[in-house]
Amino acid sequence: MLRTVNEAYGAELAELSFDEVGMADGAGRYNHYYRQNIAQSPFEAAARSKVKRLLQECKSLSGEGNLPVGAESCIVVLKDESRMDVLKALQ
């Protein structure tokens, strides 16, 4: 029974395990734990090595099956659509 539930749960949520959403409000402020850090460090000023590493990590996380999705455990990662360095992870 648990196997059937896990398969159904995984089939429905697999696409949502890594997603891109708009996290900023209309004024460009973020409702995020690190909102002060986000406001003080614009993404345009990020080092090239940081951007390259973020691209690698996002590509790795976005692959199907790279994040656990099951009825008993699931990890969901949300990336801001305008800043790839703003992420939220839910377990």
Polypeptide structure, described:
- InterPro entries: UBQ-conjugating_enzyme/RWD.
- 36% of the residues lie in helices and 14% in strands.
- It is of the alpha+beta class and 91 residues long.
- A hairpin with a 6-residue loop joins strand 2 and strand 3 (87-90).
- The radius of gyration is 16 Å and the shape is elongated.
- The chain has one domain (2-90).
- It starts with a helix and ends with a strand.
- It has a three-stranded mixed sheet with strand order 1-2-3, with no helix packed on it.
Q: Uncertain segments of ≥5 residues (pLDDT<50)? A: none
How many strands?
Answer: 3
Give the helix tally: 3
Calculate Rg over CA atoms: 16 Å
Determine the structural class based on helices, strands and strand pairing: alpha+beta
Concise synopsis of the structure shown:
With 91 residues, this protein is α+β, with helices and mostly antiparallel strands. It has three helices and three strands; from the N terminus they run H-E-H-H-E-E.
